[in-house]
């Protein structure tokens, strides 16, 4: 699947910023299935600023690969702000990166509930000093939701990197 052009352009911007600041990124993705990592590694030279990506689609993978506590998953569900925070922080703990982003959500078309509808995606961004989380509900089909989620995650990363400078 070709990477969406907006996602690709944001990945380039993020890469330039990370390279300029001599930082590396780790990703923890669930509903996007590695879309952000793909956009990043489509860029020549990304090995200079992309440390690793975790695709943690199942709860077991979230626990085993990045240390999300099983009791947290049981209590809040995979699509929740506590889990997105734990994913972002776990990606840093299990890598050498200085910044991370995490994405977990319901891309559809099934799997949604009244409390967690299709299109609900939760993000986490961390720089080892603080972690930001945000919940957004996107509209569209599965592919549109995933592209919107990847776009939002990269925009949030750029915001995190800009705040670091202040």
**Biggest sheet, spatial arrangement of strands:** 2-1-3-4-5
Helix amount:
40-55%
Number of domains: 1
- Major sheet: 5 strands, mixed
- The stretches of 5 or more residues where confidence is low (pLDDT under 50) are none
Characteristic key phrases:
single chain; 6 helices; five-stranded mixed sheet; CinA_C; Maf protein; alpha/beta; 166 residues; CinA family protein; CinA-like_C; globular
Topology diagram in text:
Elements: H1 5-20, E1 25-29, H2 35-41, E2 50-55, H3 59-66, H4 70-76, H5 81-93, E3 99-105, E4 120-126, E5 131-137, H6 142-165
Parallel strand pairs: 1-2, 1-3
Antiparallel strand pairs: 3-4, 4-5
Helix pairs in contact: 1-6
Protein model, in words:
This protein is an alpha/beta fold and 166 residues long. It has one domain: Alpha-Beta Complex (Maf protein). The protein is built from 6 helices and 5 strands. It has helices spanning 5-20, 35-41, 59-66, 70-76, 81-93, 142-165, and strands at 25-29, 50-55, 99-105, 120-126, 131-137. A hairpin with a 4-residue loop joins strand 4 and strand 5. Helix 1 runs parallel beside helix 6 (142-165). It is globular and about 45 Å long.
Short note summarizing the structure:
Helices cover about 45% and strands about 20% of the residues.
């Amino acid at each position: 699947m070709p990477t969406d052009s907006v996602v690709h352009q944001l990945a380039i911007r993020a890469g330039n910023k990370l390279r300029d600041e001599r930082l590396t990124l780790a990703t923890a993705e669930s509903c996007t299935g590695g879309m952000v990592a793909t956009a990043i590694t489509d860029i020549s030279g990304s090995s200079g600023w992309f440390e690793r990506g975790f695709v943690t689609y199942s709860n077991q993978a979230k626990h085993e690969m990045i240390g999300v506590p099983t009791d947290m998953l049981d209590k809040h569900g995979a699509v929740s702000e506590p889990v997105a925070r734990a994913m972002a922080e776990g990606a840093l703990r299990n890598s050498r990166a200085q910044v991370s982003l995490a994405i977990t959500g319901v891309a559809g078309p099934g799997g949604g509930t009244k409390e967690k509808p299709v299109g609900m995606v939760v993000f986490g961004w961390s720089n080892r000093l603080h972690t930001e989380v945000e919940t957004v509900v996107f509209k569209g089909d599965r592919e549109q939701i995933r592209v919107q989620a990847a776009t939002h995650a990269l925009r949030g990363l750029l915001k995190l990197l800009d705040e670091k400078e202040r």
